[in-house]
Design a protein that fits this description.
Elements lengths: L6 E12 L3 E8 L2 E8 H7 L6 E6 L10
Antiparallel strand pairs: 1-2, 1-4, 2-3
């Protein structure tokens, strides 16, 4: 598969929480965890399971930074 996003970071799925229509997939990357919100249908179609290797693909036009 080819993709235009340049920020594809490999990691391990540590949790999948399905809701009514949307699932939260948590991917651990070098000790940090990124959470993606995708459809339950996408989780099923991709066959995602805890322990699987997956890539967090980040495509954003803006990144905001905040400090306390």
């Amino acid at each position: 598969m080819k993709i235009s996003a340049r920020n594809a970071i490999p990691g391990k799925i540590v949790e999948i929480q399905k809701g009514a229509t949307t699932a939260h997939v948590r991917i651990e990357i070098s000790g940090a965890v990124i959470t993606a919100a995708i459809t339950n249908e996408a989780v099923d179609e991709l066959g995602l399971k805890v322990g699987d290797t997956a890539h967090a693909v980040i495509k954003a036009s803006d990144v905001m930074v905040a400090v306390p």
